[in-house]
Amino acid sequence: MTHTSRRDFLSAVAVTTAGAAALGATVPASAAQAQHTSKAPGQVPGVYRWTVGAITVTAIADGYSTLPLAIVPGATPEAADALAREAFLPTGDLPCIVNTFVIDTPSKRLLVDTGFGPGPGLHTGKIWENLTAAGIAPSEIDALVLTHGHPDHIAGMLTKEGKAAFPNAELFVHAREHAYWTDDAAQSKAPDFQKGWFDLFRTSAAAYAKRTTLFDRNDQEIVSGVRVLELFGHTPGHSGLHLSDGNQEHLIWADIVHFPHLQFARPEWGVGFDVDPDLAGKARKTMLDMAATDRIGVSGMHLAFPAVGHVVTRGKAYAFEQSRWQFDL
Ligand SMILES: [Zn+2]
């Protein structure tokens, strides 16, 4: 629509409204007037469902944190800001979305990761209100699957009193991941700011110690229709999940991408938390290629909520096509 035709269109609407008023019709107050007189209602719950055959996945938002651009090695402020502007996002510091997912299979209810919890400077810890909004009680979770041991994935494992927040859940985590975060030598070698992360993992995992299953191979089935995807590099046992039922499938790729507006365009950019940056880069490339080539839907813990869509190729890089709202479940 040109500027002129848009103006004509708007004045035609104005004439129609005035005409309706002149004829005695009720003209509703404008939306702008309504907003000025009512209290701001706040955001709706961060919950979204879709299906993979007989499996229902529910994305549960935990919130977001903000990280400095320096967390992306190799990204210059100029290049990163240009990509932010292209995506209509603020330049400078990077928002990092945090998602968790509930997977309802015909036999079990799984929760994948538990979010970052509340904390200074964090806008996370919303998993609880969103689980409630989704009608899911923590006691109804049969299995808690950890993609890896970073705090933004495990900080919701315990109650304030230090008990298992999911009292009936069996804990599933990769054997390598469990070994890493419980290894004294790894803790002493880790950067200072990460040393406390090992303690958090140990304390959190201890509450589930009597009902923990360590998985240790790619394609291993955790429950019917849910298989392990080994995606090592970000952490030593970093894993995603492959969901399938009949001819439908879906990937939950955990932390393959942290900043969608940067890393689909520049998949060679990793994140400073990568324990093995080269291996993490290979896993990212493999997953992006696989999702785009095989046209498999993906979800991620740091994709923009509700974090469900497809990867498409754009020359030598990629882009993310968010899925349409699924009305019928
Ligand atoms: Zn993460």
Write the layout of secondary structure elements.
Layout: H1 3-22, H2 31-37, E1 47-52, E2 55-67, H3 77-86, E3 94-104, E4 109-112, H4 127-133, E5 143-145, H5 151-154, E6 170-174, H6 175-181, H7 184-189, H8 195-206, E7 212-215, E8 221-223, E9 226-230, E10 239-245, E11 248-252, H9 260-263, H10 277-294, E12 297-299, E13 309-314, E14 317-322
Parallel strand pairs: 4-5, 5-6, 6-7, 11-12
Antiparallel strand pairs: 1-2, 2-3, 3-4, 8-9, 9-10, 10-11, 13-14
The structure holds zinc ion.
Zinc ion is lined by residues 150, 152-153, 255, 301-302.
Overall description:
The protein has helices at residues 3-22, 31-37, 77-86, 127-133, 151-154, 175-181, 184-189, 195-206, 260-263, 277-294; strands spanning 47-52, 55-67, 94-104, 109-112, 143-145, 170-174, 212-215, 221-223, 226-230, 239-245, 248-252, 297-299, 309-314, 317-322. The chain has a single domain, classed as Ribonuclease Z/Hydroxyacylglutathione hydrolase-like (Metallo-beta-lactamase, Chain A). With 329 residues, the chain is α/β, with parallel strands linked by helices. A hairpin with a 2-residue loop joins strand 10 (239-245) and strand 11. It has a 7-stranded mixed β-sheet with strand order 1-2-3-4-5-6-7. The chain has a 5-stranded mixed β-sheet with strand order 8-9-10-11-12, with no helix packed on it. Strands 13-14 form a two-stranded antiparallel sheet. The structure holds zinc ion. Zinc ion is lined by residues 150, 152-153, 255, 301-302. Zinc ion (ZN) is lined by residues 150, 152-153, 255, 301-302.
